[in-house]
Design brief:
The complex is a heterodimer of chains A (about 325) and B (about 90). Chain A is mainly α. Chain A has 13 helices and 2 strands, in the order ααααααααααββααα. Classes of the chains: A mainly alpha (about 325), B alpha+beta (about 90). Chains A and B meet through α4, α7 and α13 of A and β2 and α1 of B.
Chain lengths: ~325, ~90
Amino acid sequence: MTLVDLQKRFDEKIEAEVKIEPKDWMPDGYRKTLIRQISQHAHSEVVGMLPEGNWITRAPSLRRKAALLAKVQDEGGHGLYLYAAAETLGVSREELIDELLCGKAKYSSIFNYPALSWADIGAIGWLVDGAAIMNQVMLQRTSYGPYSRAMIRICKEESFHQRQGYEILLTLCRGSDEQKAMAQDSLNRWWWPSLMMFGPHDSESTHSEQSMSWKIKRKSNDELRQAFVDATVPQARYLGLTIPDPDLKWNESTGHWEFGEIDWEEFWQVVKGNGICNRQRLKDRIRAHEEGAWVREAAMAHAEKQRHRRDVA
Amino acid sequence: MNDWPLWEVFIRSRNGLDHKHVGSLHAADWQMAIENARDVYTRRNEGVSIWVVESRHIHASDPEEQDTMFESARSKVYRHPTFYDIPDEVGHM
């Protein structure tokens, strides 16, 4: 088949909502975009374990500790599903990890903010997972089969993450004045970075248009951000917390919450590596990878020895 | 680091059902593949049995040849029960 025919067949599948599978022909740009997006997503899951992992030993009760441990464990698993989906595109796990550790690959900037108080664990679950879920629900319908299947699995597992976060904040908000103040402080710090998670405005987003036409993405950054604000404002009200945005107001005619402008200077600074925790996060990942090297080697040596023994016997 | 081999994971969700492909993972050997599969793919009681197969042992049909590969079944409508006319009076058959 000629390149033109292959391209035509690919376009027809995209148009007809037929998923693209690993061995199907696909344009180079489609493959590259998917590798970039899926691996960034995988890195985000893995780096995302760090801000929360810090609080596992400090959780205020056994119930909270078990839930947080389960959540962080899920994130490790989600990283795995996503790396596996990226690998179906012909890139090795090793290459992907190397790109993260050498600082070439990006991960979600939200994880470059520190989790300073217990309330932050609540805010991360409620806002950060809430924003991630908006994106991931949309990605269940992505055009690449393995990515779509990973997303379906992730969404199924992740719904408890947001609920456990909200429940933490609800408990704090029903507690002492200090506890409620801790919850408010946490919302103040996490609100804007959570809105930044959806990325630049549609007009500024370099990859968006092409990704939408390939149906890798099904909704734009601004659409998803608006849906998140609309869903979250009433939840903040129920907690009795104030969203730190003086421009936030209900628009009766559109049926949406209007909100103020994001500090894009801050956004780009964190993307470029100048956030509060960028260096720490990467340092921790590199250390974990290096300190785990002997385990990976020993497991392989053990497996080879077993195989050898079986062959001899 | 050389990557551990890739394994495909199949899980039977309950007795009476087939093992179904759920995803893949890297592991040094089959025991580790089964343990890792338990830890990532059955954290919420998704399974009662796990199979792992090293990915390199799986051979697949070529999607480029999909049309010719499955063409012969497409024209054989007489393999389906609805192809045959049975009067309503006969009842369910």
